[in-house]
Amino acid sequence: MSNTPLAPAPVTSEHIDLQARNVSFSWEDTPLHWLPGEPFAGHTINVLHLLLPAGERWFVHVYKQVLPYITDERLRADVVGFIGQEAMHAAAHDDVLPHLKRLGLDPTPYTAQVDWFFEKLLGDRTLPPGRARKWWLMERVALIAAIEHYTAFLGDWVLNAEELDRRGADPMMLDLLRWHGAEEVEHRSVAFDLFMHVDGNYRRRARTWASAFAALVFLWQRGVRFFVENDPQRPGAKASFGQFHRAGRKGLLPSTGSMVRSIPTYLSRTYHPSQEGSTAQAVAYLASSPGANGGVRP
Ligand SMILES: [Fe+2]
Ligand SMILES: [Fe+2]
Predict the structure, then answer these.
(1) What is the distance between the alpha carbons of residues 147 and 192, in angstroms, rounded to a whole number?
(2) How many domains does the chain have?
(3) Residue 155: alpha-carbon gap to chain centroid
(4) How far apart are CA 90 and CA 222, in angstroms?
(5) Per residue in 178-216, pLDDT tens?
(6) 119: domain range?
(7) Sorted alphabetically, which keywords does the UniProt record give (predicted)?
(8) Ligand nearest to the CA of 190
């Protein structure tokens, strides 16, 4: 039996210097049902606008605390680039919320819950300096690595979701999703590399994956229900798992099967995020994204 431990195997050609891009989107011409005839799928994707601003600001907040623990200069540069990109993502999704409110769907009751989740439940606790404080910091670094597994998964999905184009999805919304998705693919290794650098404990990785997955499923299904049940154009509408599954089969959402398969992928001891998704595809999209190149309506 070999004594060589199984270790993550990064694809070195997938590394890239990260930069935050200034973006510009204008929402006045985007309808509430920006994915024509598929309000459930559109609302499921809309949950991103509710979760990401608070979630990505929380990433930035945690990562600023972990910077002193980084002893590798290239990783430090990656983390600084990551912080810049995530701050921009949070602001861009935040800008959609007033537009949804103008269209009759006020997201404030739900975003208040999400803010509580990230700021209070996952925020800084009044821990004394020392082991307890460091334990909580490492726990959150591992949680972010698990969440970033899913943001990269979604980014790769949306870059390849041609069915959204065929169904006539609003080009501005599609560009927001694909610009963000492309940057998620571009920086998909940073959170994992950071976790491996400062801790890397496999039990922590598995435990925090379970917490992150459960939290994402819980928050996402609540968000979908919130949007569907408060849609002013569809009074009495209800959300169900069957609708999610069918939209996945149509290519309008990630398929249930691909989501299930992503679980053993992350839990494999040889997994590294660079093994999935394509940096070349992400960079090519970013070079052509209207929002990332002056903000003209696509
Ligand atoms: Fe992001
Ligand atoms: Fe990210």
Answers:
(1) 10
(2) 1
(3) 8
(4) 20
(5) 999 999 999 999 999 999 999 999 999 999 999 999 999
(6) 30-290
(7) Hydrolase
(8) 2
